[in-house]
Amino acid sequence: MSPRFVEFYSRKMYHNHHSYPCLHCHPHSYIRMVQHLIERCLLLHMNRDQCIKALAEHASIRPLITLTVWRELQKENRDFFQSYFHSLSPRPLMSRYIPRAPKLARRKPWKLY
Length: 113
Hints:
Angiotensin-converting enzyme 2, single chain, CHP01589_pln, mainly alpha
């Protein structure tokens, strides 16, 4: 999570003791913030588990909250997530499956007379 993003939410005074939206005081703002952070994780090509871990460590967002928002986003954007997961899935190296021509022996250099 970037410091500028935290600073953006810090400037908004949601409550005196919160530096960013509080789940209990402003649930809608909090969920929107979590959604925004998940979208940033997607831009960094993170999978769900990496995103949950990153938000827990860097933004102190409980994993259950992140997982719930992730699932709702996934439900609303099925096609996007299907393409996203396909792009993240490891692909076998195609070179293993492409038959190669046998290597030719190295050509001897021409002799100049």
